[in-house]
Amino acid sequence: MAAPIKALFDLNVILDVLQKREPFYADSARALACAETGRVQGFIAPHSLTTLFYLYAKDQSAATARVTLTSLLQFLSVAPVDGITIEQALNLPYPDFEDAVLMIAAVQCGAEYLVTRNKRDFQPAMVTVIGPAELNALIV
Fold first, then answer.
1. How far is residue 13's CA from residue 135's CA, in Å, rounded to a whole number?
2. DSSP letter at 110?
3. Is pLDDT of 127 > 80?
């Protein structure tokens, strides 16, 4: 059996699932389910977790935020982000620094794919940037 695909998930894909955002929910849910079932080795960036905690604590409660993050961490590994990640991200010509950090985190964790709905934000790409539907097509 081949090793699973390694993919780092952008927060927008995770929020599509958690918030059941249409018309994105079905594709994003299938993509995330591939990580949950081990067909994809899934990663999430640390700053995505802090943002997600903030959003859930603000809209619901800190307890709900903790439960949500704990559930995600059952099947998503945290991509390491350190000073080298930040330095390399500063050298990318991305207008959004958060996206630059996400790209470098994907490279450093060995991800083959960065899964997002905002592919144009990740140019130039150092790993292949795909949408949830494209990841699903790879897994079939």
1. 12
2. T
3. yes
Distances (CA, A) of 33 to 83, 98, 123, 136: 32, 25, 27, 10
Matching residue, tokens 């010509």? 93
Please provide the size of the chain in residues: 140
The tokens describing 115, both together, are 């899964």
57 CA to centre of own chain? 20
Strands (E), 33-120: 40-44, 76-78, 113-115
Taking the C-alpha atoms of residue 105 and residue 101, their distance in angstroms, rounded to an integer, is: 6
- The per-residue pLDDT for 21 is 93
Extract the tokens encoding 78.
Answer: 């945290």
Pairing of strands 5-9, 40-44: parallel
**CATH numbers and ranges of domains, the chain:** 5-139 (3.40.50.1010)
What's the rounded Cα separation, in Å, for the pair 123 and 83? 22
- Please indicate, yes or no, whether the overall pTM of this predicted structure exceeds 0.90: yes
Supply the angle between the helices 11-18 and 25-36 in degrees, to the nearest 10: 100
